[in-house]
Amino acid sequence: MDHQHHPESLPRRRRRLLAAAAGLCLGGCVALSSLGAPPSPIDVSPSPALDAAIAHSEALAPSRRQLSLALPDGGCQVTYAHMSEVDISPTWQASFPGSGSRMTWSLVEALTGIRTNDDYNSHDRGYDRVVAVKTHYPVKDARRQFKTLDEKFGRAIVILRNPIQAIPSYFNLQYEHLNHLPNHSTRGPNEDWLKYRDHPGYGVAVQTASYENFVSYWMDRFEHDRSNLLLVSYEDLTDNTAGPVVAARIASFLGQVEGVNPIAEESVPCVWETIVNYKNVAPPATNAEALASDRRNVRRAAEGGAEGSGKSARRNARGATRKAQRQEARTVRPNARRLAEQPKKGRTHADPSSLRSGPKVRPYSEEMLGGMVDMFRRLVEKYGRDEDLLQIMTSYIETVNNTPVEEGYSQ
Questions:
Q1: How does DSSP classify residue 357?
Q2: Concatenated DSSP letters of 95-147
Q3: I need a surface site. Which of 83, 203, 336, 356 has the fewest CB within 10 A?
Q4: Taking the model in full, what pTM does it have?
Q5: What is d(CA 100, CA 237) in angstroms, rounded to the nearest whole number?
Q6: Model confidence over 200-245: pLDDT tens digits?
């Protein structure tokens, strides 16, 4: 696969981001309170029933999404987001599955201090007093009500991620849910990935076409009112240099809505460092810390049961010990200790898969990689006048063209 459609604008984009970053605080931002991992109803399965079950179960979990208050010199303090006190015009937060919707959801709340929702209405917050609503439409049509809901919306933030990474992330989420594993804890084995990628009903070929349809829908949706569409890439949002700049763009875009007052611009990098980069706080432990706590509690119960005397005390101790062992077998994952550790300074944890255990490299056939490049080129041909989309698709073409076909995995 050769490199085509590689315009001179890509270096200009990089210089623009670097210049913008120079105006933001990157090194001196300190969050003063920790941030927990928020629940997020992410659609991960070809089954609509499982999609709804995932959304419902995660809506029941206690929300830990938080925002940051601006402090002097670009600092921020973490507090809780809230429902808007007045009706506001909500914004779609659209992404292809596996493209960081959970992270973006938390970032939006942190930047604005206003709650978000999803198109399932999983948290029963409605749509009139939330700042943004997550959707994967047209890949998923939650409760088949998107077209009715869309009448309330005149704006959208669309997060694009290279499908060469988004599709495996989507697969990992599905694997976790189907195997009753914590979110963002495990990468499915490659033997399962190979079956998934080759599946005629939802494999890579199907999802590549679905990705093209997703991008086309949102570009066409705002064809005549491009100012109401903010198009950003997941790769830029999670980049150490470009990320704070993209976060500032998101804050500015949301701040155009009456009733939305984002955090001060000089504190945006602090918010980004806290939520996306996890540099100011420990990364989400994906239940590791809670599991460790449960383990300690069960062991204490076992020790307490041994304080008596005679056969009864010994039976109690053995029973508590077996209970502890069963609890550990059910809940403690090989990566639990690593997940609970503090990140190395400067390491980016924005991609939750970076906290997963399991194979990182997903093999693709030459046909699959070629299909992705052809899809990108069709989008460039159709929407190439849009500078943001052109630059994003150009970088994706380069990435896929430079991805080797894994030997032994070719079709």
A1: B
A2: E-TTSSHHHHHHHHHHHHSB--EETT-TTS--SSS-SEEEE-TTT--GGG-HH
A3: 83
A4: 0.71
A5: 10
A6: 999 999 999 999 999 999 999 999 999 999 999 999 999 999 999 9
Q: How far is CA 93 from CA 116, 125, 176, 290, in A?
A: 9, 16, 24, 30
Report whether the peptide linkage leading into residue 182 is cis, meaning its omega lies within 30 degrees of zero. no
74: left (phi over 0), alpha (psi -120 to 50) or beta: left
Q: Is the pLDDT reported for residue 348 higher than 90?
A: no
- Between 273 and 210, the more confident residue is 210
Cβ pair 92, 217 in contact under 8 A: no
d(CA 141, CA 120): 9
**Structure tokens of 28?**
């001196």
Give the sign of the dihedral formed by CA 395, CA 401, CA 407, CA 411: positive
Q: What is the DSSP string of 291-303?
A: HHHHHHHHHHHHH
Closest CA to 99 of 379, 369, 269, 350: 350
Of the candidates 161, 112, 149, 364, the residue with the CA atom closest to the CA atom of residue 262: 112
The helix-helix angle for 101-112 and 242-254 (nearest 10°) equals: 60
Instruction: Give tens-digit pLDDT for 290-327.
Output: 444 444 554 554 455 444 445 555 555 555 545 544 54
- Report whether 90 contacts 152 (CB < 8 A): yes
Rounded to 10 deg, the angle between the 387-401 and 163-178 helix axes is 80
pLDDT for the residue 32: 31
Name residue, tokens 């989507």. Answer: 170
In this predicted structure, the answer to whether residue 341 has a pLDDT above a threshold of 60 is no
Q: Which pair of structure tokens corresponds to residue 76?
A: 């921020």
